[in-house]
Amino acid sequence: MKSQYMHPPTFNTMTSRDITSILRVLVAQQQLLLLSLLLLAVIPSVAGYSTLSDDFLKLVPSGDADYDIHNGRLLAPLLIPRVAGTSGQEAAQRHFVDYFAQELPEWKVEWYNSTSTTPVTGNRELPFANLVLKREPPWVREGQSNLLTLVAHYDSKITPDGFIGATDSAVPCAILMHVARTLDPYLTQMYEEMTALGEGGGSVEEDMGVQILLLDGEEAFLSWTSTDSLYGSRALAEEWENTPHPVMSGYRNPLGQISMFVLLDLLGSADPRVLSWFQTTHWAYQALAQIEERMRALGLLETNPKKPFLPDADKQQFGDSHYVQDDHVPFMARGVPILHVIPTPFPAVWHKIEDDGEHLDMPTVRDWARIVTAFALEWLDMMEVEPKSQEGSSSSR
Ligand SMILES: [Zn+2]
Predict the structure, then answer these.
(1) Is the domain of 88 the same as that of 163?
(2) Which one of 48, 67, 90 terminates a domain?
């Protein structure tokens, strides 16, 4: 991504999901008021879905040794140069595909390929390949599901020679692989229970699924411009915009199905500061920040920073709205709601040869994995299938 900020475009239309989100918040606020009056108690405030219980938060795994930089299952295979069109990138692609084939066979695997020239490769068309991994309810028709969309780029920058990009974005990719395998058994259980109960979908709550976008060509080849950057995300956003669903589908095209575009980038250095960038999705930022706060209070995180990773939950003023250019831009320009999880300032190793495995802060890596995993579980309303505690107290349906 680019180290400068720009003003965002303005939107004059709202998606149905925006409205749904606002309604969720309003409904939750009314419930909050009522419950507060009735119980004289303070109820956690984020919206619509049930927040994860303390017991459930305690079960959220970090991925642990799978991030070992030498032989960890998830991360080690990605700690190589991954420039578009090179054998290193092919190895990264095989790593993703093999992992999902072996461990997550229920996930649909789709490639979205494009080509482009670049300023350093002359007239040669370079291949770019976005990988989309998706799990949605078994009953949905095309264009019916709404999809929590977790995103990272897997290409690495062509310079300096040998650049690995551990934070940029090998670690975010590995975290998303971990999130997928953690969600998977709960999704299976939830979909099976809903099918058994005849809850065959048709509402936003019932038709929730998840997709992971592993995007290619985020990095500039020469220097960041609107045409020399975001090769993969620009191609995918445009393709999805031009792929209408059948008439009477819930959503007009795949862009409309994105309930939240959660972009992870530059994660893995110590003491990150991730701000809230967008007023329209600040409620989702607050949900993420609340997860961090609760996990810290429960002693579930390894790091102990002076300030939380997500310090912006109480932000009120969004007037001076800058943002970092990154893979969300082509989607945001088409009205997709964005939660951009990127630290500013960027890590000290940013775009330097030192952005390698040895310079990662592993407690920070594992804490991000816990926080993002818990956020996804909560978003997908997994309290519905909360594992029963040993005392037998459970709110499972
Ligand atoms: Zn970068």
Answers:
(1) yes
(2) 48
Handedness of CA 41, 304, 348, 216 (dihedral sign): negative
Task: Specify if 371 maps to a domain.
Answer: yes
Q: Which DSSP string corresponds to 308-368?
A: -S---TT----SS--EE-STTHHHHTTT--EEEE-BSSPPTTTTSTT-SGGG--HHHHHHH
CA of residue 262 to ligand 1 center, whole Å: 17
**∠ Cα 217 264 208 (to 5°):** 105
Catalytic annotation, pick one of 168, 206, 216, 218: 218
Candidates 265, 326, 327, 378; catalytic one: 265
pTM equals 0.87
The answer to whether residue 206 is catalytic is no
Judgement on whether residues 210 and 336 belong to the same structural domain of the protein: yes
CA of 306 to the centre of ligand 1 (A): 26
Q: How many domains does the chain have?
A: 2
On whether residue 311 sits in a domain, the answer given is: yes
- Its domain, for residue 29, covers 15-48
43/56 same-domain check: no
Within a domain: 397: no
**Coil, helix or strand at residue 134:** strand
CA of 351 to the centre of ligand 1 (A): 6
Rg value, the chain, Cα: 20
Ligand 1 centroid – CA 1 distance (Å): 5
The answer to whether residue 107 sits within a structural domain is yes
Q: 2: CA distance to ligand 1 center in Å?
A: 8
Structure tokens at 353: 């040869």
Q: Answer yes or no: 218 catalytic.
A: yes
How confident is the prediction along the chain (397 residues), in pLDDT tens digits per residue? 665 443 333 333 344 444 444 444 444 455 444 444 333 333 333 345 799 999 999 999 999 999 999 999 999 999 999 999 899 999 999 999 999 999 999 999 999 999 999 999 889 999 999 999 999 999 999 999 999 999 999 999 999 999 999 999 999 999 999 999 999 999 999 999 999 998 878 899 899 999 999 999 999 999 999 999 999 999 999 999 999 999 888 899 999 999 999 999 999 999 999 999 999 999 999 999 999 999 999 999 999 999 999 999 999 988 766 889 999 999 999 999 999 999 999 999 999 999 999 999 999 999 999 999 999 999 999 999 999 865 544 444 3
**Structure tokens of 114?**
């494009």
CA 121 / ligand 1 centre spacing (Å): 19
Same domain, 93 and 158: yes
CA of 265 to the centre of ligand 1 (A): 8
Tell me the CATH number at 92. 3.40.630.10
